[in-house]
Each structure stands twice: as structure tokens, then as C-alpha cells.
Specification:
With 135 residues, the protein is an alpha/beta fold. The protein has seven helices and seven strands, in the order ααβαβαββαβαβαβ. The strands form two sheets. A five-stranded parallel beta sheet has the order 1-6-5-2-4. The radius of gyration is 20 Å and the shape is elongated.
Length: 135
């Protein structure tokens, strides 16, 4: 008991540093988000469709190979025209993943139940050395 009383500050620092080391593990991609490798598996095994919700000029600067561009502002109107089969997995992508996360509830509301967000967006795709196209 004397050890704990005399070294309370060291124990607090050890617990805090342990918590900081565990934080990235606890902040893994959330529900509806997947890694670049998971996206590749969906594309190859289940014919997943990549939908880039970036603006057209961002899309033209670089996008996931084979992705279809449906800007976030036009998602409700254009997505049913671009992706007719609602049973196929849908992978939502943008530059960082933020807009894609905002698009997920809209896409689910439209009936695309297998929709997921690429965690980290196009940046994560590039970091995994996966193919990127330019328009």
C-alpha cells in the first residue's frame, strides 16, 4: 500500500500511456466502414460497386479505378440511375471519408443495405498502393 501512495504519479502516467496506446485499436473503422483491402475483396468476390461522392473536379484529379462519380449533393437523384441493382455491395468513397460517412444514411434510406464507407477515403486507397485513375 505504501508503494501505491508513494508512487501514485508513476501509476497514473503508466495508466494514461496504456490508454493512449489502446486508443487507435478502439477507434478502428466503425460500423459501415471498411479497409482498402476489404473493399478490394468486396469488388472482386461480390461485384461491389465503388461510388465516389466527391465533386467532379476532385473526381477528375484522381479516383478509385472503376469508380462512378455521384456528388454528395446529387446523391438522392442520381444514385438510383447510376446503380440500379440494390443487392450489390456499394462502397462509398471521397477524399478523406468524411463526405462518404455523411452519404451513408442517405444511401441506406434509398435501399442500398449493403453500402459501406471506405475508411480513410481515397487517401487510404492510395496508401495501400491500389490503382487510381485520372479523368
Amino acid at each position: 500500500m505504501d508503494f501505491i501512495i508513494n508512487n501514485w504519479m508513476l501509476i497514473a502516467v503508466a495508466l494514461a500511456s496504456g490508454g493512449m496506446l489502446l486508443w487507435p485499436v478502439l477507434q478502428a473503422p466503425g460500423a459501415g466502414a471498411l479497409t482498402a483491402q476489404g473493399a478490394v475483396q468486396l469488388i472482386n468476390r461480390e461485384k461491389g460497386i465503388v461510388v465516389d461522392v466527391s465533386e467532379p473536379q476532385e473526381y477528375a484529379a484522381g479516383h478509385v479505378a472503376g469508380a462512378r462519380n455521384v456528388p454528395l449533393a446529387q446523391l438522392e437523384q442520381r444514385l438510383p440511375e447510376v446503380v440500379k441493382n440494390k443487392t450489390l455491395p456499394l462502397i462509398l468513397v471521397c477524399a478523406s471519408g468524411v463526405r462518404a460517412k455523411r452519404a451513408l444514411p442517405t444511401v441506406k434510406k434509398l435501399g442500398y443495405d449493403k453500402a459501406q464507407v471506405l475508411a480513410g477515403g481515397l487517401k487510404a486507397w492510395k496508401d495501400a498502393n491500389l490503382p487510381v485513375e485520372k479523368a
